[in-house]
Design goal:
This protein is an alpha/beta fold. The protein folds into four domains: about 190 residues, P-loop containing nucleotide triphosphate hydrolases (Rossmann fold, 3-Layer(aba) Sandwich); about 90 residues; about 150 residues, Helix Hairpins (Orthogonal Bundle); about 90 residues, Helix hairpin bin (Helix Hairpins), CATH 1.10.287.510. It has 13 helices and 15 strands. The longest helix is centred in the middle third of the chain and has 79 residues.
């Protein structure tokens, strides 16, 4: 379990030179209040930046530094994992990244990316996506579980269940499969080569036993043929090398295509988030006549204009998403062509290896033929030597057959292991064991918030929601308030499952402005009851504009305010 103790930061966004320090484990529930722009949500950005080198909200790195001081931006996060106390220090201008364990700084010889990988995989054992799914629910750039793509939903659940190691092992076994296929091809080739040499040796022995006067002439003809074969093989090698050079020209843009493919995926994700925000804004103007914050009526002309602009922007974004999807498919086709070309290159390189092996063998044969011709002329050749060589070749053939069978047995083990590591293998069995528990927890939490539906996730993490246990709906069929109840129920469920698995289990839960959006007064009361009962032993922070109505419900209140353009905090 991760117990977060403290986060402190300075010169971060609107924070000035003096550290703002927040004790994360002081009270079971804490209310965070303040006006818009006062810096309430900055603690989320600081916590995520300190741990994962990226803020919670969609803010560029160079914008994180306080625009007045413009230097010495520092974030420190302290937490406990098991019996070890950790402190992560991350800064900008100058760039700093340190990990301290029990007062000693960990070795920084590795590259910064590897240092971050060590923090996420070996210490925290969770990444940014799983952290935001289990620890944070907010209205900024957060994407709820039900709005994630299918593969991202699966990744979150795998991380929570601590089974993502099987995906990494699947990739490892896939590479082993490719390598083992090459090893088996080479073993088959070696076996066939020795078998051919045995046939040749048998014929040689027969030639010795049936020697005639014109045998020497026959050997000379065979020698000439071998020389011709060497020349032919050498010519074949040249042609194959030319083919390889041409193929390599075709994949010179592999890095560029990969980079473009990744960039397209990133653009697609950003556009989807932007489209989701505009849809939310469109829904707001379509369903509201009054501003929920200031309670003033929204001008109909302004409302109509905004609805038109948002609808037009959504259409533009959806067209752009369609175009990007086409480009992604095109880049995937290019990558597939490049991969096929690389496979062809490997096959041709293997062919060259076989040609060169054949050339070496033929050269050995020509040497032997020259010796045989000399021996035939001198009539000193004995069949005993040739028989001894034949016996050695037969022993080599037995060894080659054993080697070939050994590699094929290893291939069977690798194939079996990869089958188990795939999505349909061990992971599916583990997920299927936890799915009933997940669905049970989700429906329990929904009922606790007076939302009585039958919610079910299948093994592909697609939802089936039955209202009144008869009519089937999906997540997007419900109102924003009902969606938020579902998001809360899933968030609480992930935390329950994390406790069972002790994987991404943590004491911290931060809810950013959920009381200010779609949760009504009844839902608020029910949610507060859940906080004070089921989450009494955890540390929950609620960020809200509704300080006046909520302040008496919390034992600890933190207030953020702007003073001379800098954020300051009071408890």
């Amino acid at each position: 379990m991760i117990v977060f103790k403290k986060v402190r930061y300075k010169n971060f966004l609107s924070t000035g030179q003096q550290f703002i320090e927040i004790q994360l484990d002081r009270a079971p529930t804490t209310l965070v209040v303040g006006e818009n722009g006062a810096g309430k949500s900055t603690m989320l950005d600081a916590l995520c930046f300190g741990l994962f080198q990226r803020p919670f909200r969609n803010i560029k790195k160079d914008q994180l530094i306080n625009t007045i001081n413009e230097k010495e931006c520092v974030v420190e996060v302290e937490f406990i994992v098991g019996q070890k106390e950790y402190k992560v220090i991350r800064g900008i201008k100058p760039n700093t990244f340190e990990i301290w364990c029990d007062g000693d700084m960990l070795n920084q010889d590795a590259a910064q990316r590897d240092y971050q990988k060590h923090l996420e995989q070996q210490i925290l054992k969770l990444n940014f996506r799983s952290f935001t799914q289990v620890v944070i629910l907010g209205n900024a750039s957060f994407v709820p579980f039900m709005q994630l793509r299918a593969r991202h939903r699966r990744q979150v659940v795998e991380e929570i269940l601590d089974i993502e190691i099987f995906s990494k092992m699947n990739i490892m076994f896939r590479e082993k499969q490719k390598n083992q296929d090459e090893v088996i091809k080479q073993a088959d080739f070696d076996y066939q080569l020795i078998d051919d040499r045995i046939d040749t040796q048998k014929k040689h022995i027969d030639d010795i036993n049936n020697r005639s006067k014109d045998l020497a002439d026959s050997k000379k003809a065979e020698l000439n043929k071998s020389i011709t074969d060497i020349a032919n093989y050498q010519e074949d090698v040249k042609k194959v090398r030319i083919d390889i050079a041409e193929l390599q020209k075709q994949i010179l843009d592999e890095t560029k295509v990969n980079a473009k493919h990744k960039k397209l995926h990133n653009m697609e994700a950003k556009l989807e988030n932007t489209c989701s925000k505009h849809k939310k804004d469109l829904s707001f103007f379509q369903s509201h006549n009054d501003c929920p914050t200031c309670q003033q009526s929204i001008n109909e002309a302004f409302k109509s204009t905004m609805i038109g602009k948002k609808a037009e922007k959504i259409q533009e974004l959806e067209i752009a998403l369609g175009q990007i999807d086409k480009e992604i498919k095109t880049s995937e086709m290019k990558l597939d062509t490049i991969n096929k070309t690389m496979v062809t290159i490997r096959e041709k390189e293997l062919l060259i290896n076989r040609y060169e092996t054949s050339i070496d063998e033929i050269k050995k044969q020509t040497t032997r033929l020259g010796q045989e011709i000399a021996e035939l002329i001198d009539e000193k050749q004995s069949s005993a030597v040739a028989t001894g060589e034949l016996n050695q070749l037969r022993e080599q053939l037995v060894d080659a057959e054993k080697n070939k069978l050994k590699h094929k047995d290893e291939k069977v083990y690798i194939d079996t292991a990869r089958h188990l590591m795939q999505d349909t293998g061990i992971k599916t069995k583990i997920i299927n064991q936890y799915l009933p528990i997940m669905n049970q927890y989700i429906n329990k939490h929904l009922a606790d918030m007076d939302f009585f539906v039958n919610f079910t996730l299948d093994e592909e993490f697609n939802e089936t929601i039955k209202s009144r246990y008869r009519d089937e709906f999906n997540y997007h069929s419900f109102s924003e308030g009902e969606k938020l109840r579902i998001d809360l129920a899933i968030l609480f469920t992930w935390r329950e499952i994390a406790k069972l698995k002790n994987s991404t289990n943590t004491n911290l839960l931060i809810l950013d402005e959920i009381f200010d959006s779609s949760l009504d007064s009844s839902g608020t009361d029910e949610f507060m009851r859940i906080l004070h009962t089921t989450m009494a032993k955890e540390n929950v922070f609620v960020i809200s504009h509704k300080g006046d109505t909520l302040i008496d419900k919390f034992p600890r209140v933190m207030k953020f305010e702007k003073y001379k353009n800098f954020t300051r905090m009071a408890e």
